[in-house]
Structures are given as structure tokens and as C-alpha cells.
Amino acid sequence: MNDSAAARGILLPDWLELIVRFLVGGTFVYASFDKILHPADFALAISHYRLLPGDLLHVFALLVPWVELVAGLGMILGFARRGASALVTAMLVMFVAAIVSALARDLDISCGCFSTKGGHAVGLSLIFRDIALLAGAVLLWVCRGVRRSF
Q: What is the pTM of this model?
């Protein structure tokens, strides 16, 4: 591979890029809805992880769902795809770290991922799901996109 090809990055097939964009972006859009509608409940779910000081809980609970929504829409629509992918990558790294931390401390909590009430218990399946999403987000971040946006 010559230097100009390396500078352009890997080009994904159209079908693969669209599938990954819709799966990862759609997951983040869907995950944002309940948190946006119930920020106090989301703040409570975050507090169960015991990672943030109380002063940051509500700021975090208000900000993260909107970042999830905007980044997810950016991925789906192809608008600022690399920036959206970078945001999703950063959030997924943070989510995996929080889940690993909760598991290491043997916390029996709900993840707060898609629903602020009830929801999925923190466990290895969440780590595997988030790593799969992370792989898709990283793929979109490092690979060169083409004109495919809606």
C-alpha cells in the first residue's frame, strides 16, 4: 500500500458501513430516549455505580443522553460520521469501564442502559454487547467514509 492509500484510510463496502452505522447509531438513539424523559431516574441509576461525586450526577444525567442522541443520529445520517463515531467510542469505553468497575466491586445494580427503571443487571453480557458496539464504532471512526449520508 502506498502512502497516499494509507492516508486515505480503509474504505468499507457501502452495505457494511450502512449496517454498522444503523446498528450502532440506532442503539444509541434508542438508549437515549428513556434517559432524556427521566433524567432524575437516570441520575439515580448512575449513582448506583458509585463512581461520580454527587455534584456531577445531575450534570452527567442531563448531558450524556443528549450526546448519545446527537452522536447516534450523526452516525445514522452520516453527518459528521467520524466525530459521531469518536464520541460513541469514548462513551462505550466509559460504559465498559463502569460495568467492569461495578462487577469488580460486586455491585448488584441495573445498568441504566435502555431503561431507567428495572433494566438489565450489570454483567458480562453487557460487556460483550458494549465491546461489539465499540468494535463497530471504532471501525467507522478509523475507516474512510464516502458520500453516503441521508
A: 0.84
**What is the rounded end-to-end Cα distance, in angstroms, of the chain?**
31
**pLDDT, tens digit, for every residue of 101-127?**
999 999 888 888 887 776 678 889 899
* Residue 6, CA atoms < 13 Å, CB-side half-sphere: 3
C-alpha span between 114 and 42 (Å, rounded)? 10
Query: Whole-angstrom Cα distance, residue 102 to residue 52?
Result: 13
With a CB cutoff of 8 Å and minimum separation 6, the contacts of 117 are 38, 41
Each domain of the chain, given as residue ranges in start order, spans 3-141
Nearest to 69 by CA among 40, 101, 34, 97: 34
Let me know: does 110 contact 34? Beta carbons within 8 Å.
no
DSSP SS3 for 143: coil
